[in-house]
Amino acid sequence: MLANRSIPQCAVIPALPCPDVVRSAKWLCKAFGFTLRIGMGSHRAQLNVGDGAVVLTELPQGEQPYSPNSVIVRVEDVDRHHEQAIRHGAQILRPPANYPYGERQYTAVDLAGHRWTFSQSIEDIAPEDWGGTSGQL
Fold first, then answer.
1. 3-class SS at 58?
2. What pLDDT sits at residue 67?
3. Is residue 50 part of a domain?
4. What integer pLDDT is reported at residue 2 of this predicted model?
5. How many CB atoms lie within 10 A of CB 54?
6. 10-44 pLDDT, tens per residue?
7. How far apart are CA 92 and CA 88, in angstroms?
8. Which residues is 54 bridged to in the sheet?
9. 137 lies in a domain?
10. CATH number of 85's domain
């Protein structure tokens, strides 16, 4: 794949509409530890999220904010991340908890209403050990 400095190199890049891209980008950086990759005026921003990325896009004139989606982001320390999010006013939907598939997770909502689940691996568990199946549909 051809490299292009104007787009993140990761294969999947969520694009999330926001009523105020600049305010949302600044808040996501403070609350969730993202970093600004590229700002494009007030209509678009690319943010680094670990080894991934997310793009914030301007909500089209007259459209209402909506958020049927959810993004999962892996982090090193869920509890520390959760504390930072609370300090910056994140609405917490689910506090940190351990799950049988070897993850510790919490879910928060950002300024635009998007749901973010932050996940820390705490154990390597085979999917079959908790009721999943590996590589089969």
1. strand
2. 65
3. yes
4. 79
5. 24
6. 888 999 999 899 999 999 999 999 999 999 999 99
7. 11
8. 47
9. no
10. 3.10.180.10
Q: Which of 30, 56, 32 is nearest to 116 (CA)?
A: 32
The pair of three-digit structure tokens given for residue 129, joined into one six-digit string: 């050990």
pLDDT score at 53: 96
* Average pLDDT, integer, range 87-107: 96
* Residue 10 domain-assigned (yes or no): no
Q: Quick check: 79 and 118 in contact, CB under 8 A?
A: no
Domain count, the chain: 1
**5 found inside a domain:** no
pLDDT tens, position by position, 36-80: 999 999 999 999 999 999 999 998 877 776 666 789 999 999 999
b/e code 63-102 from CB counts within 10 Å (16+ = b): eeeeeeeeeebbbeebeebbeebeeeebeeeeebeeeebb
Question: Residue ranges of the alpha helices (H) in the chain?
Answer: 21-32, 78-87
Give me the domain span that covers residue 22. Answer: 15-59+66-126
Tokens, residue 23: 């305010």
Q: Is the dihedral of CA 37, 49, 72, 27 positive or negative?
A: negative
Backbone dihedral region for residue 93 (phi beyond 0: left; psi -120 to 50: alpha; all else: beta): alpha
